[in-house]
Amino acid sequence: MKMMTKSGSPVPIPNLSTRFIILFLLFFFLGFFCYATIYAIIGAMVTTAQEGQQFVFPPILISLVGLYSVFPVIRDPNSTYSFWASIMPFISPIVMPARIWIDMPQIWEILLAILLNVGMIFVTTWIAAKVYRVGMLMYGKRATIPEVWRWIREH
Minimal CA–CA distance to 39: which of 67, 60, 11? Predict the structure, then answer.
């Protein structure tokens, strides 16, 4: 392992493989687009930033669940919990890179996580488009969660 010196103390430099860097970037972009579509739904529901503040807690909570799911995955990367956490959309972009770094899962698990995230991106983009189409006509009226569900089902 390579060492770097900081203040006279040796600090190990991690050896990052090309495969890990590619998978990390792939999951980074999947996570970016997953959360971007959630925020697009929120943006389509509201007309001002102040109205949008009431809806940002759920995506933040989901990302915190992903962050805190990394700790059990680090302890046991081959457990049942690690498997399910690493394929769940919105959580897997955070958990799967940690799992890959600790102990490389089987390739089908990585492909399943990618497929589920891509599917979720398409679904949430479709929902955002429906909400945006109706939300633009509702200018000046505050959207509620039950009202948004009605928009998605009816239009």
Answer: 60
Residue bearing tokens 């200018």: 139
CA distance readout (Å), 57 to 38, 42, 91, 154: 11, 11, 16, 26
Pairing of strands 9-13, 2-6: antiparallel
| Among 142, 144, 134, 96, residue whose Cα is nearest residue 117 | 96
Paired with 3 in beta bridges are 12
Name the residue among 129, 125, 151 with its Cα closest to residue 38: 125
Handedness of CA 73, 34, 17, 87 (dihedral sign): positive
Q: Which two tokens stand for residue 3?
A: 């060492």
Q: How far apart are CA 36 and CA 147, in angstroms?
A: 22
> SS3 for 100-120, per residue?
HHHCCCCHHHHHHHHHHHHHH
CB 143 within 8 A of CB 135: yes
The reported pLDDT for the residue numbered 137 is 66
Mean of the pLDDT values across residues 60-64? 93
